[in-house]
Amino acid sequence: MPNRLHVSDLRIHRAPDQERRQGLLAWVSFQVDGWVMDRFAIRRTMDGRPYLSFPKHKDNQGELHPVAWLPDHRDRQSIQAQILAMVDFEELAR
Asked: Which of 10, 20, 52, 69 is the S-S candidate for 30 at Cβ 3.0 to 4.6 Å?
């Protein structure tokens, strides 16, 4: 299935070493069909797989709420796959 959404202009900001030890690899910003998306994170799962984490906002009661989300699971997977394919993980690991 072709991508319905196109990711471009990926910018990567390597996470500090302390946060990297806890699984946060980098903060990323990018465009999706002209919309700027910011403050997304690339993290590692416990078994070492990278994934894209969507930003959340903490309300006055301390509860987290997504800032942006895609209701279509295929669109989320497509955006994640496109971004992870653009990341040089060897360079990020240095």
From this structure: 10
